[in-house]
From TrEMBL:
Pfam families: LigD_Prim-Pol (PF21686)
Protein name per its UniProtKB record: Non-homologous end-joining DNA ligase
Species classification: Bacteria, Bacillati, Actinomycetota, Actinomycetes, Kitasatosporales
UniProt KW keywords: Ligase
Species for this entry: Actinacidiphila acididurans
Domain DNA ligase D polymerase positions: 27-280
Transmembrane segments: none
EC top class named in words: ligase
InterPro entries assigned: LigD_pol_dom, MtLigD_Pol-like, NHEJ_LigD
Gene3D superfamilies in UniProt: DNA primase, PRIM domain
Amino acid sequence: MPITEVEGRRLKLSHLDRVLWPRTGTTKGEMLHYYATVAPVLLPYTVGRPVSFVRTPDGVAGQRFFQKRPPAGTPDWVTTADTLRKSGEFMSQVLVDDLPTLIWAGNLACVEIHTPQWLAADPGTADRLVIDLDPGPDRTVIDCCRVALLLRERLAEDGLTAWAKTSGSKGLHLYAALRDASPRAAGDYAKRVAQELERRHPDRVISRMTRADRTGRVFLDWSQNSAKKTTATAYTVRAQERPTVSVPLSWREVAEADDPAGLVFTIDDVPGRVAERGDLLAGLLDPAAAAPLPG
């Protein structure tokens, strides 16, 4: 079992040649290399936030599970935080605050990283608004792009600046930076905006959870603003057939998109893209970008 040192932490890496994505032959070692490469742009979106992992020990075609609690054998140097559960009990969760933690988690086949819209130090304050645009049957990510432009304009009416990224699966995520908002208020606002867009564009948009009504429309999932919900973080790999990534987009890319394949990025694509274009979501991290919810 190879041992490597990452920023002063000794890590035992195992089964680096294990294929996690059978369709492409992508190994765990290749995934770890990706995470190490993009860590400078990924970590700002996980620091201080309790994470949930999607683990696929035998690869994405095998068993997978959502892990919130720290895995067995978690090193004592891994930072954790206690989060309040719906039952009123506290639960410990990992904070991916540094590169050693990121690589340690990847070695456990924690393929996906999901975060809430609040920091562990202040769980009662939502510092981000998120709306997940999910294409229904007969719709694609290109339809999500068209709706995202409408949603961007609607948020701007209330003084909120929006940033977009691919989900790494089928749709898009839109974010805005918030100030002095609670998760409940953020969720209520996102729901109102989604319902408003559905009334304006009933043939294109749906805000209701009923799956049977989504055919031919884009579902605006406002519920991920709940204090109990999480969203795939920027630059996380996804447990899809291929090692796709949730990637920030420019608004020009969103506006000009005409081919779903052009908005699919894998771990082979992203490092070069970041080197050339930087982090297109970085504005979300700027405290000056945070705005209060209306009224």
